[in-house]
Amino acid sequence: MELSLSEVVGLLGGDVYGQTDMVLTGIAPLETAEQGDVSFLSNPKYQQQLQSSRAGCVIVGPAMREAAMARGTCIVTDQPYLYFARLTQLWKRKRNAAILPSIHPSAVVDPSATVHSSASVGPLCVVERGARIGAGTVLKSRVTVGEDCSIGERCILHSGVVVGADGFGFAPNGETWVKIEQLGAVQIGNDVEIGANTCIDRGALQDTVIEDGVKLDNLIQIGHNVRVGRNTAMAGCAGVAGSATIGPNCTVGGGAIVLGHLTLGANVHISAATVVSRSILKPGNYTGMFPIDDNASWERNAATLKQLHSLRDRIKTLEKETKK
Q1: CATH number of 3-95
Q2: What is the pLDDT of residues 239-250, one digit of tens each?
Q3: Which runs of consecutive H residues, i.e. helices, occur in 41-137?
């Protein structure tokens, strides 16, 4: 596939310097790009790679304009990483222009389900009774959308996603467990992307809700009755237990856990591997993890942590005695 540089700038904006009639044949990182490729530089610490790159054109910010012009053809824009993201979207649209929306012959779609004519349903997908798939949404292979669940417009669900499995609800009865039927569904908004093998459980009574613009990585577990606010992003292997509420514009790092019935307010950012054990309403960055160490040192430090409460009491006692 080919795109002219003038076409790219005409569609995406930016200022081009150098060979404006260049034809681009690929997008590549600075270190591996060849003459027909376009690349980008958003972090000044990689300026050395800019000078040695063989890329035909490089996308840079205003601060790097002179260095990029000295090297060759460049596009200058205020947000080069964002420009790169939009270029990848443009490239994919052009590449897939001839591919029409369809339901793969191996997919199973219940007659009562609604799939918009512009949506795509991939191989071995299952869309169950009463489910709804919105305009421009793409279900990759082996996606399952459970009964009565709703997927909005322009969503992407990657291979193996399960939307609407039963939430984990059981009532104890002596030494056994009695299943609580999960009578809610899952409501997913517009422009949501869900990574491979991620599971979103249906609600027990009310629906589990994923709002517009949410981005979920691979292998994430969203429990029943969870609500995830608009434009929140979660990295791989994160888990959110039942009935937790996560506000808009949050981020949750890989492997982090949010316990059930807690609330994260807007613009709360959780570091990787953190266990959120209390509600957090104030915007900011939060971390709760034990630093890695060799095992013997880790065990000694862990043992010390167990003594902190008694040490605090002893210090308070000493302080009182000192004041006498």
Answers
A1: 3.40.1390.10
A2: 999 999 999 999
A3: 47-52, 65-71, 80-95
